[in-house]
Structures are given as structure tokens and as C-alpha cells.
Specification:
single chain, 152 residues, mainly alpha, 5 helices, DUF3995, transmembrane, DUF3995 domain-containing protein
Length: 152
């Protein structure tokens, strides 16, 4: 096997492992919050500018649905790179990866007010963490998803 192919396989393994770890971690946190956990909750919801109220308060079903979506993301990534076999056509996996990369890219850009790199509301705990962790992580997930498509 040529060294080039080994490097590609290593990169695919590294990127898919990173994405799966991040998705499982985020899913786990959402399950924790869904069942009453409080750690980190204050930092993950955007606040209304004039008050300390969150923009929205997700219920149990919404919180657990987000966890399920991230777990599906793990299966998508692992199936796309052929670490697991699912009875899903490769074209669906391909477009699923494009969709995933696009969604996370759009999340990193944001809606220009409360969320993303170009948000106008600053000075809240959420905006602090969004600037330093959430938006950069979304951009990284997007780039890694597109890199996997390119490398595969």
C-alpha cells in the first residue's frame, strides 16, 4: 500500500473518530440535561438582550430529540467511512454528510442576532461561549464533514 493511501486512511480515521466523539459527548450532555442535570445549562441558551431570560426553554422531548439527532450523526459518520454497515444506500449517506456539513456551517455563521460568528448581541454568558467554543466547534464539524466527503 502506498504511503499516500495510508495517510488518507489515517486522516479518515482521525476525522471520523473526532466527529463521533464530539457527537456522543453532545448527545450525552443533552441526555443529562433531559433528566434534570443543571451543569452548563446557563451557558448554552441565548438570552434576551433586555433580560436574563433565555430566548427559549426546550422541554424534555426537544432535549432528548437533539440527543437522538447527534447519535444518528455518529451512525451517519461511521457508516459513511465504512466502520459500520447499515442498510442505507451510499448516496443517502453521501447527501446526509453534505446536509450535516451544511447545517453546521450555517450554525457557525448564525442568524446574525443571537447565534454564530456574526451575532450582534454580545456580553452574555452564551455569547462568550458561542464565540469561543460553540461556533468554532460547529465550523470544525462542518469542515471535517466536508473533508471526509472529499477524502472518501
Amino acid at each position: 500500500m502506498r504511503i499516500y493511501r495510508k495517510i488518507i486512511l489515517f486522516l479518515v480515521s482521525l476525522l471520523s473518530s473526532f466527529l463521533s466523539f464530539v457527537f456522543l459527548f453532545i448527545a450525552g450532555i443533552h441526555i443529562y440535561w433531559g433528566f434534570g442535570g443543571e451543569w452548563g445549562k446557563d451557558a448554552v441558551l441565548p438570552k434576551i438582550e433586555t433580560s436574563d431570560r433565555p430566548l427559549f426553554i426546550p422541554g424534555l422531548a426537544a432535549t432528548l430529540l437533539v440527543a437522538v439527532v447527534f447519535i444518528i450523526g455518529v451512525f451517519l459518520v461511521q457508516s459513511f467511512v465504512s466502520n459500520i454497515t447499515l442498510p442505507i444506500p451510499s448516496s443517502i449517506l453521501y447527501y446526509g454528510m453534505i446536509f450535516q456539513g451544511t447545517v453546521f456551517f450555517l450554525r457557525s455563521i448564525g442568524e446574525f442576532r443571537y447565534v454564530g460568528f456574526f451575532k450582534t448581541q454580545k456580553g452574555t454568558l452564551f455569547s462568550y461561549w458561542d464565540d469561543r467554543l460553540f461556533s468554532p466547534l460547529c465550523l470544525t464539524v462542518s469542515l471535517f464533514s466536508f473533508a471526509l466527503i472529499y477524502l472518501k
